[in-house]
What we know:
By secondary structure, the chain is mainly alpha-helical. It is 57% helix and 0% strand. It has four helices and no strands. The protein has helices spanning 10-22, 30-40, 47-62, 75-81. Helix 1 packs across helix 2 and helix 2 (30-40) packs antiparallel against helix 3 (47-62). The mean pLDDT is 83.
Amino acid sequence: MDSAPQPTNDHERTIAAAIESKLLVPDSAYDSIVAEVAVCLPFAMSIADAQFLFNYANWRVAQPAKKQPARGIMSEDRKRSG
């Protein structure tokens, strides 16, 4: 799936937000994200909701991780120290 599944209703927006919050944990796996989101939703999922959950989680987990600065000495600090 190349393009992002777009939420079209409140349930799908809630699902997308829950998935995004689970991705804040490093190395989140698709299976654990889907399971945790399905359990924490404040509504009973319809078949369409479940399909969106699977599609959005699959798409989101497949996206490259955002580059974070390395921990420790930053390149500017290295130039000054050495």
